[in-house]
Amino acid sequence: MKTTTVDKSAQQERELQIVRVFDAPRSLVFKVWTQPEHFARWLGPKDFMTTSCTMDVRPGGSYRACIRSPEGKNHWLQGVYREIVEPERLVFTFAWEDENSEPKHETLVTVTFTQQNGKTQLTFHQAIFESIEARDSHRSGWSECFDRLEIYLSNPMVAY
Prior knowledge:
Blueprint: H1 8-13, E1 16-22, H2 26-34, H3 36-42, E2 49-55, E3 62-68, E4 74-85, E5 89-97, E6 103-116, E7 119-127, H4 132-153
Domain Activator of Hsp90 ATPase homologue 1/2-like C-terminal: 23-153
Protein name: Polyketide cyclase
Family: Belongs to the AHA1 family.
């Protein structure tokens, strides 16, 4: 029987964790992650636009979205929801699509929402990336998404 040894530190290097606190109640932050009309408003890095977003938010349900770069290039992403605990936790797969709409390397995303004195601490974890470069690219992209999310949540109309 062949055994393999996994280098835990090498694996951890290909994981991403971002923690942000949003000045909004947990139920609202969860809502804008799980309703396509809201998710599409902040998904994507700065200056990107979501042109398509479908979501079947239930365990086993899928989502698919297209974000367009400022240069006009479309980037499609997709995944499947694994776990939904409203308003505490979302777990879903994440994969960019190739030119044939087939998923490329798949990662697992876990988002937790913790209430903190009327604000929400969001802990975002994504793993395992193919490379450190891929992880760093996603860190930049998600950080810009969360900047956009912060602005979006500050709009009083979002609560309705």
